[in-house]
């Protein structure tokens, strides 16, 4: 007798709906992904803050416990993708846990940035579990001062 997995059915339906929107040109960001947080509704990981000044965008990503060697950043136009892996405890057997709230595993997070980036000069630093990314704005994205002639 086959068992019915309702969550799998819902996930397949969501994917079909996402594909339909993408066919019409809408880019859907995953909203119901259970890849990184097993058995839970996943939210984007790592958690990020994005802010800017006149010449740069800054992304601060909280990534405690992430293996720095596994971190990979990709910038294309106005999109930043962060991927890596957070290792779980190796000395504890899974059946020994009473509570396991700190998820582990591979992750990928894409962030749409508000302006186009100069991808040749991006800098990233990982310090104390915080990934700090400095993204210089492309010249055409920077504000231009236009002088007004008075006649």
Low-confidence stretches: 31-42
Give the radius of gyration: 20 Å
Overall outline: flat
Please work out how many helical segments DSSP would assign. 1
Helical content stands at 10-25%
Number of strands: 7
Determine the structural class based on helices, strands and strand pairing.
mainly beta
Terminal-residue CA separation: 87 Å
Overall number of structural domains: 2
Which topology of the largest domain does CATH recognise?
Immunoglobulin-like
Protein traits:
30% strand; 12% helix; Immunoglobulin-like; mainly beta; 151 residues
Structure description:
The chain has one helix and seven strands. It is mainly beta. It folds into two domains: 1-32; 35-139, Immunoglobulin-like, CATH 2.60.40. The chain has a four-stranded antiparallel β-sheet, with no helix packed on it. A three-stranded antiparallel β-sheet has the order 3-4-5, with no helix packed on it. The N and C termini lie far apart (87 Å).
């Amino acid at each position: 007798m086959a068992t019915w997995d309702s969550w799998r059915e819902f996930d397949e339906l969501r994917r079909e709906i996402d594909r339909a929107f993408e066919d019409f040109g809408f880019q859907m960001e995953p909203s119901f992904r259970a890849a990184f947080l097993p058995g839970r509704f996943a939210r984007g990981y790592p958690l990020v803050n994005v802010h800017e000044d006149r010449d740069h965008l800054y992304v601060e990503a909280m990534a405690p416990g992430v293996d720095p060697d596994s971190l990979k950043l990709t910038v294309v136009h106005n999109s930043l993708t962060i991927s890596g892996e957070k290792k779980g405890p190796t000395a504890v057997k899974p059946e020994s846990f009473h509570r396991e709230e700190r998820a582990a595993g591979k992750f990928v997070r894409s962030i749409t940035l508000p302006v186009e980036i100069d991808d040749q000069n991006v800098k990233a630093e990982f310090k104390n579990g915080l990934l700090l990314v400095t993204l210089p704005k492309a010249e055409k994205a920077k504000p231009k001062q236009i002088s007004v002639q008075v006649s």
